[in-house]
Design brief:
The protein has 164 residues and is α/β, with parallel strands linked by helices. Helix content is 16%, strand content 24%. The chain contains two helices and seven strands; from the N terminus they run E-E-E-E-E-E-H-H-E. Strands 5-2-3-7 form a four-stranded mixed sheet, with no helix packed on it. Strands 4-1-6 form a three-stranded mixed sheet, with no helix packed on it. Helix 1 (117-127) crosses helix 2 (142-156). The longest helix has 15 residues, at 142-156. It is elongated, with a radius of gyration of 18 Å.
Length: 164
């Protein structure tokens, strides 16, 4: 399991680039979503919290990775089944004969990942526990109790995310 403020790959960070990208992040879930940019030091910077169905236009660069987190449960959300979104240059899909052309925003749909039955079940139970110790009161194997206690603790602990 990754640290609170890290993605599995700790080398994920923004790199300098001249390749602009214009995106529209669209919350395609029923959850409030934190839109997070990973800066040049690999730190998470929250740009916006999107209510369900809302969107946010961002002018970014092709080498700037983004994350999307459920603001209440801290569960990771995805774009095209990927936890980390990496924008493409604005001209990526244009044909040579189409230049010059006005830059258009790429629509980026934030969705809920396809969880296994086990993962989703643990999330539902976690959402009904108020304290980590409550997990040990359930008639479950010790390994699941420990995992649930950790999940409750993580959902209660604010992430160290800078705000834009």
């Amino acid at each position: 399991m990754a640290e609170d403020n890290e993605v599995a790959d700790s080398d994920i960070r923004s790199k300098h680039s001249m390749c602009r990208s214009f995106v529209r992040f669209i919350n395609n879930t029923d959850r409030k979503v934190d839109v997070i940019w990973i800066n040049f030091e690999g730190q998470h910077v929250k740009y916006k919290t999107l209510p369900p169905g809302a969107f946010f236009d961002a002018n970014t660069y092709a080498t700037h990775p983004w994350l999307f987190i459920d603001s209440e449960t801290q569960d990771k959300l995805v774009v095209k089944s990927e936890e980390v979104f990496r924008p493409e240059p604005w001209y990526q899909h244009l044909h040579r004969e189409e230049f010059p052309r006005r830059a258009e925003r790429t629509h980026v749909y934030i969705t809920i990942p396809l969880y296994t039955l086990r993962e989703r079940s643990l999330q539902v139970v976690r959402n009904n526990l108020s304290q980590p110790d409550d997990a040990f009161k359930l008639e479950l194997p010790n390994s699941l109790q420990r995992e649930l206690a950790t999940m409750v603790k993580e959902s209660m602990t604010p992430r160290s995310i800078a705000t834009y």
